[in-house]
Amino acid sequence: MTDWNHEVERIRQLRRDRTRIGPGEHPAVVVVDFQRAFTEHEFVGPSTPVALKHSQQLLEAARAAGVPVIYLVMILDSLDDRMLAQRVRSSLTERCERGNPWTEISTAVPAQPGDHIVEKTVASGFFRTRLHDLLQELGVDEVVMIGTSTSGCVRATVTDAAYLNYRISVVEECCDDFRTLSGEVSLWDMQDRFADVVSLEWMLERFARA
């Protein structure tokens, strides 16, 4: 029988030891789906307010350093715009029709003047959105990823960012997933294949030097 506690410790060590890609010269912070639908739902656990608090700290540091901040938000003109799996199965995206108060960005991490908001209809922030064009306009070569859920929309956006050859830094303390094991595995998967998983402390120190 698999000892899952041992497996989690093993992948955490693998993540720490994995070769780093390294940061870029012109980062932007991409905030994934920190909307009420995904931060106030009935399955939210104690990790969510902690991730939001850490994210607010990171966002304040990014803005002070002149780093662009981009919010990704799930907005659907029709629930039929969702991918097939979400139309067949019950999903929190049922709360994401345009005009529904659940689509609002969490008051714990509010957008500020000068921030950018990009609407999306699926997990990835790049699929049929203006995100890549916006990043190019801003001269960005690295995306600093925070948000929810680690195993869903964060991972999907990271994967597509990697395919577009962005450098990617996933800030561990600023990502949340109520599926605890899925979140842990996804952090290892992203570190192994697509990105650097970094600490909040490291990113704050970096922004302070900018």
UniProtKB/TrEMBL annotation:
Transmembrane segments: none annotated. Keywords: Hydrolase. The keyword Hydrolase applies. Signal peptide: none annotated. Residues 28-200 form the Isochorismatase-like domain. InterPro entries: Isochorismatase-like_dom, Isochorismatase-like_hydrls, Isochorismatase-like_sf. The keyword Hydrolase applies. One of its GO terms (molecular function) is hydrolase activity. This is Isochorismatase family protein.
